[in-house]
Amino acid sequence: MDHFPTNWGRPRNDAYDAYGTYPIAQRPYNGPKDAFAQGIQHTQQPIVTGTSVLALKYKDGVMLAADNLASYGSLARFKDIQRLQAIGAHTVIGAGGDMSDFQYIQAMLDELIIDEFTAQDGHTLGPAEIHEYLAQVMYARRSKMNPLWNAILVGGVKDGKRFLSFVDLLGTTYSASTLATGYGAHIALPLLRTAVEGKEDILNEEEAHKILEQSMKVLYYRDARSIDKYQVATITAEGVSISETRHLETSWSFAEGIRGYGAQTQ
Amino acid sequence: MPSIEQPQQRQFNPYSENGGTILAIAGADFSVIAGDTRQSEGYSIQTRYAPKVFRLTDRAVLAVNGFAADGNMFVKKVRQRLEWYRHAHAKDMPLRAIARLIQTMLYARRFFPFYVYNILGGIEEDGTGAVYSFDPVGSYEREACRAAGAAQSLVQPFLDNQIYFKNQLPAPGTSHPAHLPLSTVLSLVIDSFTSATERHIEVGDGLEIYIVFSKGSTSLQGLASVRGLQEVTTTDDGERVFVIRRELKKD
Predict the structure, then answer these.
(1) Which CDD domains does its entry note (chain A) (predicted)?
(2) What is the distance in angstroms between the Cα of A174 and the nearest Cα belonging to chain B?
């Protein structure tokens, strides 16, 4: 006897065990079927990914660094991808995570900047506004269970104020005088905090760059999804500049002296 | 016999847990609402300063703890509703009304909850100090004190003992006080957080203590000697709000 009156008089489904109690009693579904349910795909995992982004505040502004690699799993797939992008005249964003989602975000923010420019109302969007907008978009997408799979740093200078904040695929936000995403949050951030905290108003551009280069180098030695080519974005009151690709000078000769690191001769 | 086809998928998890602890204690004519400022995920400290306690009006302060993104969004939406109320009625919403509003806002998301534990502190219309505590789907009650978050299990028993005098017998011929003075409450709050910082890895960095006083509260005198005090009152309705910022251990 089927005890669900809504099933009475409907075709029987012999593949369905009406007496099954595990995991919980299931009823056959008799409602309308969505033929396209299988067709709607949400991002469930990142595919082509970027690794860490690093950033710090220094005397004259904010500096960000990210390498030029986009990986496909463990394959170093694209080796000249730019992961830092200027948004408007006062802001740079840097992204780790899914690169196609990041490129979508770039297109979205470029359109936003054009809309604001077209208004010609004497206002421009600064880093705080860009970050707030991005945070709302990221949170809205996670709430639709269709996240943009990124961790993003937003840095900039506007009206004489430095700004540096984080936002990720969950819509989580926070700010500090130095930030890092991905592996960098584990490996580089302790180094950055030691070098930067309490010295935000003292460090000059050269020192800030030195700190970032050193951290990128440590990451390149330890993060298997990184590459020795990176870019640095500098945002000051004068404006935004993103450097040409730079090369990290590394030395691997120490490896020969370590047993278990390379080919063994004995 | 095979059962009907079950969809099998690895699902995106829309929640995270960002640590930290919050706490509120009601006095006779004041209310104290406090929270640490560390935000973490797993073993990583994301930032040493991310406020969890927010002044809503001059008689209401809200502390949020749990998933930080949900917490910030929830505070944003509560503030929006309070602004609409101000425009409609030309006054700030009373505390007990804010408490009921928060319940309905939380329960509206019963099937995709805000993963947030709320504690609302402030002054009722009758001038008494009040604390309301909520679960993520809106169950709430008015209490004299409440701790929530990562170190709830460390702090709440301490408060039960020191505020409600649980497991304590009064000296012969005396009785336990119904309300504690401000200086005692502040000491309890600071001790709670320094101790939670010692024993819980997700608690530390900074401490923000909000104090709300009713109109003409006599407890105001006790503030003179307090270090690191700042007034954040915005109206001249009579209620006054102060915040004390302190450092906690950063390890």
Answers:
(1) proteasome_beta_type_4 (cd03760)
(2) 7
B-chain residues near A31 (CB < 8 A): none
Beta strand ranges found along A99-209 (DSSP E): 150-158, 161-168, 173-175, 178-180
Report yes or no: A147 at the B interface, CB cutoff 8 Å.
yes
**pLDDT digit string (tens) for A88-124?**
999 999 999 999 999 999 999 999 999 999 999 999 9
User: Of the listed A43, A49, A194, A245, which one is catalytic?
Assistant: A43
pTM here? 0.89
Residue B46's pLDDT band (cuts 50, 70, 90): very high
- Interface probe, candidates A174, A177, A194, chain B, greatest B C-beta count within 10 A: A174
- Asked if the ipTM is above 0.85, the reply is yes
pLDDT digits (tens, 9 = 90+) for A76-98: 999 999 999 999 999 999 999 99
Contacts of B206 in chain A (CB under 8 A): none
Placement of tokens 């710090």 in the chain = A56
pLDDT at A74 over 80: yes
Residues of B with CB under 8 A from a CB of A: 1-4, 9-12, 14-16, 18, 39, 41, 44, 46-50, 67-69, 72-73, 112
CA distance B195 to chain A (A): 25
pLDDT tens-digit readout, B61-70:
999 999 999 9
Active site residue A234: no
pLDDT value for A255 = 78
Q: Where are the beta strands (DSSP E) in A73-228?
A: 75-78, 84-87, 91-98, 150-158, 161-168, 173-175, 178-180
All residues of chain A having their beta carbon less than 8 Å from the beta carbon of residue B20 are none
* Distance to chain A for B71, nearest Cα, Å: 10
State how beta strands B129-134 and B140-143 pair: antiparallel
